[in-house]
């Protein structure tokens, strides 16, 4: 059944908001991917028509949403063609690959006796702390509470928590669309890996020195 409502909340950076139905009822969550026309950005207080569904957690969500005056095309691109991965999703996939590769390499160095186990434990512990900070900041963003400064998140990544930062971005969908933040995070990752390789892997520093 199609339902009408007003878009009372919308965060264009994150791509989601809430619809207040015209009939009595709870506000309904809506994501940008749920709109039939992706090129037309939603606007606050505009009338929206949608299909009411429930997600896996039983929460009310809008699906196949259309803007005022727009007809529902039942054969929309979303259902007629497989969805292509966005550049952001591809970037996050590469980031997770880097995390797996780094931790696997670090574990091998520990097992081979070339690096102390304390370094592996340190990365894991810092990553867990970083995940907690990202989760707190995500929750704060949703509830309008005090936010954790981006400089703090970058500092955690720099000192070794970047595997957790990458995982948290993917898991919480937090700070994953802000290009400037992602660029700075990659700088922290590169700096940390470079410093670790230079100071704690003798073969790496010897190889670099031999080139100059």
TrEMBL record:
Keywords: Membrane, Phosphoprotein, Transmembrane, Transmembrane helix. Residues 2-67 form the CSD domain. CDD domains: CSP_CDS (cd04458). Signal peptide: none annotated. InterPro entries: Ca-reg_mRNA-binding_domain, CSD, CSP_DNA-bd, DUF1294, NA-bd_OB-fold. The chain crosses the membrane at residues 91-111, 117-136, 179-201. It holds the Pfam family CSD. The keyword Repeat does not apply. This is Cold shock and DUF1294 domain-containing protein.
């Amino acid at each position: 059944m199609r339902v009408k409502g007003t878009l009372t909340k919308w965060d264009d950076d994150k791509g989601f908001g809430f619809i207040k139905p015209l009939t009595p009822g709870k506000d309904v969550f809506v994501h940008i991917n749920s709109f039939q026309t992706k090129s037309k950005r939603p606007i606050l207080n505009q009338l929206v028509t949608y299909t009411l569904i429930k997600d896996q957690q039983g929460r009310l969500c809008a699906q196949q949403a259309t803007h005022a005056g727009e007809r529902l095309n039942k054969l929309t691109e979303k259902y007629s063609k497989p969805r292509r991965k966005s550049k952001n999703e591809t970037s996050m996939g590469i980031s997770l690959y880097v995390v797996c590769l780094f931790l696997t390499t670090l574990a091998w160095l520990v097992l081979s006796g070339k690096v102390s186990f304390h370094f592996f434990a340190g990365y894991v512990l810092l990553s867990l702390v970083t995940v907690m900070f990202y989760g707190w900041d995500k929750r704060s963003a949703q509830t309008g509470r005090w936010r954790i400064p981006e400089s703090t998140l970058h500092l955690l990544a720099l000192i070794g928590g970047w595997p957790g930062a990458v995982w948290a971005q993917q898991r919480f969908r937090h700070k994953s669309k802000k290009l400037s933040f992602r660029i700075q995070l990659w700088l922290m990752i590169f700096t940390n890996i470079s410093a670790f390789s230079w100071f704690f892997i003798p073969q790496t520093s010897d190889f670099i020195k031999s080139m100059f």
